[in-house]
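Example record

One chain of 329 residues, shown exactly as stored in the release files.
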Amino acid sequence: MPEAAADFTAIHFSTSAIQERDRVAMLRDFVGPMVARLEVRPVGDGPLHFEISARALPELAVSTLIFSAVRAERTRALIADGNDNCSFSWLISPGNTAAQRNRELKPADGEGTLLSMADPFWCATVPGIARGATLSVPRKLLASMVPRLEDRFGTVIADCEALRLLRDYVGVLDQHCLTTPELRRSVVSHVHDLAALALGATRDVAEIATSRGLRAARLHAIKAEIRTCLGEQSLTLSTVALRHGITPRYVQALFEDEGTTFSQFLIGERLELVHRLLRDATQMVRPIGAIAYDAGFGDLSHFNRAFRQRYGATPSDVRAAASRQRGAS
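Predicted structure tokens for this chain:
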């Protein structure tokens, strides 16, 4: 249901919170007309499941979805609402189809589709659980970045680096609180840049987008990988660059743009992980050295120096203070 988020308007809905007999009506009466301005109905005889998390920022709306087989239609009656935005979507699904302007589309997993909200269309998935996301972007804005935008409506957007980075970037927006106008503007610009690159931006726009949105998304993807692989002691600048198909110098330049280095970010993330685990009651019986090693530190002397420099206390001090705090509560 709608909620006032700290950073931007959010709507969360799941049929799991509703009795099965009421799910179809809720999908028809709430999700379709109020969230996406679509007529939505289930397909097949299986139980209906539909989850959506929708967030609205200036000149951008982002919806992430998990759902069973449905058919969604933008009818002529709904077009009367005057919304002429661009709907840019991608799904991971057992099979999905869309149609607009006499074109029927069968995008593969991860490929995108671009649809005009000013024209009728329908989308359908087959039985099974589909996952995906949809961006709603003002038509005039995207038209200023992508030549011959009108020709792209009702077409499949092939998988490419910009689309992969866009999927990853959008996929973690739920995990971040965009609390300042500056941060919100940056995120919106980055999404616009990546969408335009995936659709075929003009040369001038592509140059700006590559130096702005593409760099931000690459850095975001690299940071996400580092956080996932902290325990790998072989995690180095060179290995990360190789995995992302870019040079070590380019990776270093991305971090330098933020006033830091790859090594500083990596060590900082590892220290934060150890600090969090030292305060975790379930980790009290584990030796500090084992926790540090599992976080990627191979040299305990280096770990202890770095930890004390960052937190102004030894790992033992932090663990003892957390233990006393739990005992006093």
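Notes: Confidence is low (pLDDT under 50) at residues 1-7.
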